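Bench notes, afternoon.
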Amino acid sequence: MKSVSQSALLLEQNFLMYDGKGPVPEPIHAYLSSNWKDLRNLPKDSPPLISKALNRWYVPDPNRSADLEKLREKALLKEFSEYQQTPRKLKVFRLEAVRAGFKNAFLQQDYQTIIEVAAKLPDAVLQEDTQLMLFRDNAVTRSGST
């Protein structure tokens, strides 16, 4: 059981999973088109190719900015989840991780997470960063909290 969780952790940290958004990444496209005859010569945005590629892991291309951005965002969200777990005020944190976490929570309409993490931040940080303040204020408004 431990080796399964370690494998999952390694996958999570070093690879990307295709989520069906955008064209199929080249490594997955190459694999599928070489192993399934009915998927050969299909464009990367073809629905049958996308459905077969969905939830497959692939090695991120360091020359492709979209892959690098996904890896970066995944790392920032992981750091943000650590901020969520901490019960006390945050003294040391990365502003970009908080921004990424607030953005992700807002897109998922998880306003309570934004409110709770914002309460752990120093007031000066919220006052100086208009983006964080907007996320917090909108979360309070949309959740009905005061």
